[in-house]
Amino acid sequence: MLKYLTLAAVVYFFYWLIKSKLRARKLAQQGIVVEQKGLRPITLLSIVMVVIYGGYLVYHLLSNPS
């Protein structure tokens, strides 16, 4: 189940990334400057992945006491 959630998160991430790049390119053609602010997308993806797998590790350790 976790691998499907991870796959969905990665696919959505790349969809969002491509959509934002195309939007920025379209605005740049119109002469509107788009500033980069906040976290870089790859940093955001890595944080999400660490949280997902860390949560799974905690769940696994608590559900299997052996």
**What kind of assembly state do the chains in view correspond to?**
single chain
Average pLDDT for all residues? 86
Give the terminus-to-terminus CA distance.
23 Å
What are the segments in which pLDDT stays under 50 over at least 5 consecutive residues?
none
The percentage helix is over 70%
User: Helix-strand pattern, N to C?
Assistant: HH
Strand segment tally:
0
* Radius of gyration based on Cα positions: 17 Å
- Could you say how many structural domains there are in total? 1
Shape: elongated
How many separate helices? 2
Q: Tell me the β content.
A: under 5%
The main β sheet shows up as: none
Structural class: mainly alpha
Describe what you observe in this structure:
The protein is mostly helical and 66 residues long. It has one domain. Helices cover 77% and strands 0% of the residues. It has 2 helices and no strands. The longest helix has 28 residues, at 2-29. The two termini are 23 Å apart. The model has no long low-confidence stretch (mean pLDDT 86).
